[in-house]
Hints:
The chain contains 2 helices and no strands. It has helices at residues 5-37, 45-87.
Amino acid sequence: MALPIDNNISSAFANGPLGIQRGSNQITQASSDLASSSIRSQTGELQSATKMTDALIDLQIGALNTQASARVLSAANDTLGTLLDTFA
C-alpha cells in the first residue's frame, strides 16, 4: 500500500510552523506569568512559589514543543530534498 507522500510532507510543512507558533505563544505566556508571579502576593510565599514553578514548567514545555516542531520541519525538508535528488 503506497502512502501519499505529498500529503504527508505538505502536512508537515503546514503543521511545523503552527507548532512553532503555539510553542512561542506558550513561552510568551509562561514568561509573562513568571514575571507577574515574582511580585510577592499578599496571600503568602507558598502560592507565589507554586505559580513560579508552574510558569517555569510551562516555559520548558513550550521550549520543547518548539524544538519538536522545528525537528518536524527539518525532517520534512530532508525528505523532500531526498525525493528531489532521487526523482529529479
